[in-house]
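Closing statement on the zinc ion sub-project.
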Amino acid sequence: MNAPVETLPPAESAAPTADVALPPPAPLIIRMLRTMRVWIDSHSSMQSEADGKVPLKVDWFRLAPFIGVHLACFSVIWVGWSWVAVGVALGFYVLRMFAITGFYHRYFSHRTYSTSRVFQFIMGCIGNSSVQRGPLWWAAHHRHHHKYSDMPEDGHSPRQHGFLWSHIGWISAHANFRTDMKAVPDLAKFPELVLLDRFDTTIPILLGVGMFFLGYFLNIFWPGLGTSGSQMLVWGFFISTVAVAHGTFTVNSLTHLWGKQVYPSNDDSRNSMLIALITLGEGWHNNHHYYQSSVRQGFRWWQIDITYYGLWCMSKVGLIWGLKPVPAKVIADAGKLMDKPATA
Ligand SMILES: [Zn+2]
Ligand SMILES: [Zn+2]
């Protein structure tokens, strides 16, 4: 069993900035080979990047698979659609968005509940299938965001870097590829999680292959469904994955731009019902920035938080426990403290 932690460990290293003295770049072919190795073993570059002297700009080689997943969605023109393929895409959107919000965010990043070591690993694997890197990388960057929220060090602040960078640019930057182990000592002590984080493309590839064979066998045994291997791959993996990615990214971009502030969280975080529906509850971002230790992000009954409802059900069957509540005073404070400036 993992003991719950009350406070987050410090994220000691700030994001590299563009004005550090950069070493001369390696020859192009060497950089390409290094990048191809990092596609498979994401920790292979960690030592060389540990000094932080890496440029804060888009790394197109490293980004190639991410771009490829987007481009692959256009092949829907050739594979067509079927109700079963669209249904699988929707189902895997909900499952993997829940894994990002309920597991990567509320467990690995904030430790708002407890579980067994075995189920912790299962949660990490399901979260990894969302193609948003490993649980340590995700949690390390997220803890850094909370520590420096909307300050110059914040890697995906719209205030500091604009909408496009906060939405997708930051994840494309070479400087942000490395997993900062110092920010996640509570997770790095589990070798199985480190392994998962290191080989973070394995499960996504297996999921893609699995989708292809699902459609392939459905076509053989239930041809009336009108699907195929390639159609299921496009809908169940590529389209679903891109939708989960951009749904998640709205939390980094739009919830620091749109919506209402009810708490003085010293940053630009806001509450948005629309984004809460898209992300299964993460749209109550101002609530969350003000009080991060709660498993709930919708503090009021009408603040729809589907991830919380799912986690509550999981607690009732014993998969997780020790769900941390929202203190009554925090709920009562909503709106009362806003006479203070919201930004420091
Ligand atoms: Zn958070
Ligand atoms: Zn935020």
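Residues 145, 149, 256, 269, 285, 289 surround zinc ion (ligand 2) (CB under 6 Å). With this model delivered, the sub-project is considered complete and its resources will be redirected to Aim 3.
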